[in-house]
């Protein structure tokens, strides 16, 4: 008997996730013989639910929520052995994974697209004993994400992060990082280091156009020490998709990396919209690990 689990974060999108629960169940009832539905009430629930389902042989695990809920669910599938296929309906603020995979941003459209979907083998990253499917960042971004309130997300959407980011740049500092990869070993000062698996960061779909969700690599993006006036030059480059060739960043294309903070402070990270581990981080790409339902453009 084919079984699937549906994980719903009821607070995602200002509570919009619950509005689409019945539609998602109806759609999946045409694809699976048995369904279970679980609602999260606290951090870690989605990981626990997905891990149990994967260990118990569920064919697929679906979630409905934002990037943080997606990250938790992927962590559960990975911890459970990675055998369950994964699908999701975006109801968050930024929805980077939807953008990277071509999944409709409108929840009803994403649900209906499941009828004509295919499986794509997608890379994920390991960070210490956790997993990520889009990015992990150290520096100014974790501070920005922490400070954005649910009300600001609801009112401004992705723009809320940009507004907070602009404010943070006036007070941000540079950090000393030691970065070691297969081909590099060096120390550098930077306000922000990102390890990225896809082309998208914070809803900017052209941030890293040379990257793909299944190319087997991550890009370590190191922003150089900069003055505040540089921000006016950096933003147009991001919008055009040419930041990766600019003088403002150093980019390493790698499969593994170890990043250590040399400053005598605690520096948290942000991982797919969730709070990540403290530095240092040991990173590794797991090529094609995750089996994801994506729209099949050949079918209508």
TrEMBL record:
GO terms for cellular component: plasma membrane. The keyword ATP-binding applies. Its cofactor is Mg(2+). GO terms for biological process: phospholipid biosynthetic process. Its EC number is 2.7.1.-. Belongs to the diacylglycerol/lipid kinase family. This is Lipid kinase SP_1045.
